[in-house]
Every structure is written in structure tokens, then in C-alpha cells.
Amino acid sequence: MSTENSKFKDFNFAEGELLLINKPYKWTSFDVVGKIRNSLKPLKLKVGHAGTLDPLATGLLIICTGKLTKQIDTFQAEEKEYTGTMILGATTPSFDMETEVDETFDTSKITEAEIYEACKPFTGDIEQYPPAHSAVKVNGERLYVKARLGEEVELRKRFVSVPEFEITRIELPEIDFRIVCSKGTYIRSLISDFGKQLNNGAYLSKLTRTRSGNFLLSNSFEVLELVNYIRSKKEEAKAQEEA
To answer: Keyword annotations for this protein (predicted)?
Structure first.
């Protein structure tokens, strides 16, 4: 990759950089952190992310390096925006495509007007339970570990804010949506509850984080694009030292 690429700059990772990354499908947020941390070796720097994305979700992941990792909590607390697709007429135990469909429902009598109306109870300050298949910890153990072992877990209700919940396309069984929400909102739970509001079932089939605070997905790097650039800069510096 050419280091003349105007998209890049001379990073100072030790002092601290905020990197906007487009998390790939099926990568964990920790996969992204690890890939970037490894590309920075032999520098031993702190690298962390501000707000986990599920493996099946894509989109904006904020990565902080060096001294900027101290501000992760601040970035993580920012409002988020997502776009996605749900499947109406079925449910899964994980509320998304990680697990197989366990129940199906008839959607033939559901009208578009009813679908738009069903958004209203989920706009504003709402209560929700995290999915059993989630990274939330109970007694020090993540829920998805317990769920995969078939163990019963007690889910704790949480309060979140959803300023905007908009339906953008209806082509049953698929429904596209856009959501603006507070930190800690589980979109999977919201979609599951949305299905129940229609006396039906729904699960999440696609999710992309498009914004976190004032940071936009449109300004993000692809992971390997950034990693290759970092490596090319290291090789360039090494060649200059040897010259």
C-alpha cells in the first residue's frame, strides 16, 4: 500500500490515537483489538475498544491506543445509531442468527400500519432485559457461556433510552429499521420485544452501527487496510535506519 494515501496520517500510537474501524462480519470486537495490537509490535501499547459489537454485527468500532485508552469510558457512553434488518414471524433463542429458529408464527394478517404503530412503545425511555446469549456478566461469568451450557440465568432489567426507532422498509418477512439509542441498549432484545408487541415473533438478521457520538462509519478504516498501512510504515522506517 502506498504511504502517499491521503486517507492516512502520521499516527502517534503511544501518545494516543482514536481509530474508527469498520468491524467485519463474524469478527469479535476483541479480534479487531488484537489485530491492531499485533501490528504495532514491538511497541507494547494499551489498545482497547469503546463499545462491544456482537460478532454477527458490523460497523463502527472505536479503538483507542496509548494514553487515549483512559478516555474509553467517555467514548463508550455516547449515543449510538444503528441500521439493520429483522425477520418477522420467527424467533431464535439468541434473538439473532447465532442460533436456529425455534418457533414460527403466521404474519399474513399483520398490516404495515400495525408494524409502524408497534414502534411507539419502544421509543423514549424503556426497560429491557439483555439476551441470555450476551456478554453481560452474572457472578463473574458471561451470560452466553451459561446459555451455551444450558444453564438457567436470572436476567436483570435495565433502563435505556431510544430517541428514534424508525421502520425504513417492509418486505415481509424482512423489515429494515434505523435506531438511535443510549449506551447499553440491546438491539436484539428490542427486536424480540417488537415481535411480541405484534403478538408474533421477530429476530435480528442484520445489524450495522453507523454512528457513535459524533463519529461516523463513513469515516472509518477497514481493519486490514489500516494494519497493512501500519506495517508499511514500520518497514519504511526500518529501511531508512539501515540506509
So the answer is: Isomerase, tRNA processing
38-41 contacts: CB < 8 A, separation 24 or more? 39/226, 39/227, 39/230, 39/231, 40/13, 40/65, 40/230
pLDDT in tens, 75-104: 999 999 999 999 999 999 999 999 999 999
Q: Which of 10, 31, 54, 176 is catalytic?
A: 54
How many helices (H) does the chain have, and how many strands (E)?
6, 15
Burial class (CB in 10 A: 0-12, 13-18, 19+), 91: buried
Give Cα separations from 55 to 3, 75, 125 (angstroms): 31, 20, 27
Q: Omega into 173 within 30° of 0, i.e. cis?
A: yes
Round to whole Å and give the CA distance between 155 and 197. 20
Q: Express each pLDDT in 136-171 by its tens digit.
A: 544 555 455 544 555 555 567 889 999 999 999 999
Residue 229: count other Cβ atoms within 10 Å of its Cβ: 19
Run of H or E residues at 193: helix 187-197
CB contact at 8 A, 4 and 200: no
Give yes or no for a contact between 53 and 23, defined as CB atoms under 8 angstroms apart. yes
10 in active site: no
Residue 127: exposure state from Cβ atoms within 10 A (0-12, 13-18, ≥19): exposed
